[in-house]
Design goal:
Layout: H1 2-29, H2 32-35, E1 37-41, H3 46-49, H4 55-58, H5 64-69, H6 81-91, E2 95-101, H7 129-138, E3 142-148, H8 182-198, E4 204-208, H9 215-218, H10 220-230, E5 235-236, E6 263-266, H11 284-296, E7 300-305, H12 315-330, H13 332-336, E8 338-340, E9 351-354, E10 359-364, E11 372-375, E12 381-386, E13 395-398, E14 409-412, E15 425-431
Parallel strand pairs: 1-2, 1-7, 2-3, 3-4, 4-5, 6-7
Antiparallel strand pairs: 8-9, 9-10, 10-15, 11-14, 12-15, 13-14
Helix pairs in contact: 6-7, 6-12, 8-10
């Protein structure tokens, strides 16, 4: 009997601990789940030759020596982080994520644990991270730091698929570490660099490369603990093995919404870094539609840019950012004051709901014909208007059996041509009371009124 009581108490204690952890996680993610838009910035040596980031070495399309030689032309001569942040603020982004160090091992800050940095190895000869952080804080945006767990230039790191230069150890001072194994030295190096980044008090860590080793090898649990110790409010993406806080699918919009908090990261063309020969830019309409699809299912869009080696942003990227920002500004109520929309079947297109569930935002990707159809809405409709133009639309119910809680179809008139947005038109359906949905299978009406 005593044993059973003891086991029950242990079980209750465990449940309580997990409940506290989940509550803490929910609190940490609160800002993230309301953010809607973030800007991803891939900036590194790979922009000099316009090649596929660090992966160009992995696939042996460039030698390690030639890859690192790109540092001679990585000048950051036109780098203006305040101008970057002015643009991001204009677009409507709420957070930014900068590649502080990609798989190549090149750090954008003045790290003590490697000379392979933009301060000591690149033509820039300066710390690029610190002024960026200051610019972000001026705008009161959330700061995200990308950090690759793998470092393909580090002499103690394996596996690598290419031949490193023979003198790569010169970049990594390791005094007093002779008694450690190669992997122990590398793990210590990761912890040391992360401790440097913790000094910037990031709101978000965006890890990458976790697939190359198991969580026990990276010491992922210990990494998460150290980050939370430095900043109890920090959140981490899903690429710290199983220790992430939110999911981050990339490039292909999820057909089925991921569970929990999530973001969708996407390039504007087919590459993350600056790649001038890649002219396959997504049209503005696709970027706006993707943004709408993502926020309508409760996610954020993390839209990527790849600045040039001099720090300027290509006109094609600026054009798309500004166009998205203009659309967001026009429809900001539906963007920022909303959450994931209606379940499938009520409306043929993306939708969002206001936080109080008294407004439904219907997103039209194409010009409608005849009428717009909304199904299963039991609450009375107060008004329907086109966001941006303010045009009021007429509406009427058809069919159904209100006395049997079957609402029928709501037919909404088509907006005038002048009210249609060139990318996505948004209708605001205001309800008299909080949203109540009909989710039944339908049944015979045994009593007509």
């Amino acid at each position: 009997m005593v044993k059973k009581i003891f086991l029950t108490l242990c079980l209750l204690a465990t449940i309580n601990i997990h409940a506290q952890i989940n509550k803490q996680k929910d609190n940490r993610l609160e800002w993230f789940e309301k953010a809607k838009l973030g800007i991803f910035i891939h900036w590194g040596y790979y922009g000099v030759n316009g090649i596929t980031e660090s992966w160009s070495m992995y696939h042996k399309r460039i030698s390690h020596a030639d890859y690192l030689a790109q540092g001679k032309e990585f000048t950051a001569s036109n780098y203006n982080p305040d101008a970057w942040l002015d643009l991001f603020e204009k677009v409507g982004a709420k957070y930014v994520v900068l590649t502080t160090k990609h798989h190549d091992g090149v750090a954008l800050w003045d790290t003590k644990y490697s000379t392979l940095s933009t301060v000591k190895h690149a033509a820039a000869k300066k710390d690029l991270l610190t002024p960026f952080v200051k610019a972000v804080r001026k705008k009161n945006m959330k700061l995200g730091l990308y950090y690759s767990l793998c470092d393909w230039s580090h002499p103690d790191y394996k596996p690598v698929t290419f031949e490193r230069i023979k003198t790569t150890n010169k970049f990594y001072p390791q005094k007093g570490q002779q008694k450690l194994s190669p992997w122990e030295r590398f793990v210590k190096f990761n912890f040391d660099q992360l401790e440097e980044l913790n000094a910037y008090k990031p709101d978000l860590y965006w890890f990458d490369g976790d697939w190359e080793h198991k969580a026990e090898e990276w010491k992922s649990a210990e990494i998460k603990q150290s980050l939370l110790k430095s900043n109890p409010q920090v959140i981490v993406n899903s690429r710290l093995n199983e220790y992430g806080d939110y999911k981050t699918p990339e490039q292909g919009v999820p057909i089925v919404r991921p569970e929990g908090a999530w973001e969708f990261c996407m390039t504007m063309n087919d590459n993350w870094g600056y790649f001038p020969s890649d002219t396959n830019y997504k049209p503005i309409s696709q970027i706006v539609r993707t943004f709408v699809e993502v926020i309508s299912t409760g996610g954020n869009l993390l839209l990527n840019i790849g600045p040039k080696p001099d720090g300027s942003i290509a006109p094609e990227q600026v054009e798309r950012l500004e166009a998205l920002g203009k659309w967001i500004q026009k429809h900001k109520t539906a963007v920022y004051d909303s959450e994931a929309g209606l379940p499938y079947g009520h409306f043929f297109g993306p939708t969002m709901l206001s936080h109080d569930h008294k407004k439904i935002y219907l997103c039209l990707f194409d010009a409608p014909k005849n009428y717009i159809q909304l199904k299963g809405i039991q609450a009375k409709i107060k008004s329907i208007k086109v966001l941006g133009s303010g045009e009021n639309l007429s509406f009427e119910r058809n069919g159904g059996a209100a006395w049997n809680n079957i609402p029928g179809i709501l037919r909404i008139s088509v907006p005038s041509e002048n009210s249609l947005d060139p990318y996505v038109t948004v209708l605001e359906v205001e309800l008299e009371d909080k949203l109540v949905l009909y989710r039944g299978h339908g049944n015979a009406v045994e009593l007509n009124m």
